[in-house]
Amino acid sequence: MDFFDVVRERHSIRAFKDRPIEQDKLRRILEAVNRAPSAGNLQSYEVYLISDLARRTALVASAGGSGFLAEAPVVLVFCAHPARARDRYRSRGEQLYAVQDATIACTFAMLAATALGLSTVWVGAFEEQAVAEAVGIPSGQRPVAILPIGYAAEQADPRERRPLDELVHEVK
Question: How far apart are CA 18 and CA 26, in angstroms?
Fold first, then answer.
């Protein structure tokens, strides 16, 4: 799929079919995550892959009852790992770059999934400590995005976007 088609076709899906993701597709998504740009190429993030139903169900409670987290056959949890950026970038690396790195990696996963005919939805509304406990995330890492991935069980309606002349501000 052409890159611009991928961008146009990506929609937030909150209902997933009871169908596993092929291992080669999952591998390609994870390889895309690993290719995501990061500050100083430090990759100051970690990714937790959850396919176990009990753990996916535990994530539902941490995200305000978002049942689609248990429906998706795979959920990726992206965590900032501030210590990886601390030595080179000090507090800015810890507080900002690690979060940016994790979110860029999540975006690459979303786009790769779309290119492979899969669907996702970015989940940012969750209790960080509850996610950390449900997944078993070590101390020192911060969950910043949850990404359920699967085959869509619903059709997304295209949503209106802001006009470019309202969104983009040219500075001369």
Answer: 16
Q: State whether the Cα torsion 51-123-69-64 is positive or negative.
A: positive
CB atoms inside a 10 Å sphere around CB 133: 12
Q: Are 69 and 150 in contact (CB under 8 A)?
A: no
Cα–Cα–Cα angle for 111, 138, 64, rounded to 5 degrees = 60
**Residue 63: alpha-carbon gap to chain centroid:** 14
Ordered structural domains, the chain, with CATH: 3-149 (3.40.109.10)
Per-residue pLDDT at 159 exceeds 90: no
Nearest Cα residue to 146 out of 82, 50, 32: 50
Is 69 within 8 Å of 50 (Cβ atoms)? no
CA–CA dist 40, 145 (Å, integer): 21
Both tokens of 159, joined, read: 């949503």
* DSSP label at residue 40: G
Contact indicator for 46, 81 with CB cutoff of 8 Å? yes
Q: pLDDT tens digits for 71-101?
A: 999 999 999 999 999 999 999 999 999 999 9
pTM: 0.96
Q: Give 36's DSSP letter.
A: S
Nearest to residue 144, comparing CAs of 166, 164, 163, 128?
A: 128
